[in-house]
TrEMBL record:
One of its GO terms (molecular function) is calcium ion binding. This is EF-hand domain-containing protein. Signal peptide: none annotated. CDD domains: EFh (cd00051). It holds the Pfam family EF-hand_7. Residues 49-84, 85-120, 131-166 form the EF-hand domain. Keywords: Calcium, Metal-binding, Repeat. It comes from the Eukaryota.
Amino acid sequence: MASKFKNVPVINKFEIESLLRKYRELMKKKQKMDRVLFCEILCNHFGMTDSIMMDNIFRIFDRDNDSIINMEEWIRGLSVFLRGNLQEQIKFCFDVYDLNGDGYISRDEMYQLLKDCLKYKYTPDEDPEDTKRELVDYALKQLDMDSDSRVSFADFETAVKGKELLLECLGPCIPDYRVKLIVSDKFFRDENDDQEIMKIKCSK
């Protein structure tokens, strides 16, 4: 089975087998990994709570667009999610932010992604919509390298490579370093380690 994923970057045979085992474990109570189960995994294991972001991460994982994450999609998605290099992460984030999949991040898509970022209490003389539009304008200014009022992949790539902090400027869609370590420890655990842990528990 692992040979099927030989072109997946950074993931070795042991890690592929570990992820496949985790996939089957998470599927114990369901026959398929649908959007609901996948979003539960993002929430429970990766600490994600933004429904728009989780829905779009599901869309990117679901390569064949059948509303199910199969084993190959699970492996390929997590290879970027947990171990992807900067170029792979740039492509992943751009695809997540491109809500309608047309190859561009529009001003409206930016607004949809950023509208819930400002959660502080506004004063009576403040217009929340004006503040949100200002935030979108600022993001567009940072990312729109050719000034055509939309962000292409080339724009996004150039902007992020010039300033890596812009990678997730439209919302967190990749686990941070600490979460990656915690999840990797859980998902890449050797099956023999689990057996040893059970032996120790049973002997007490």
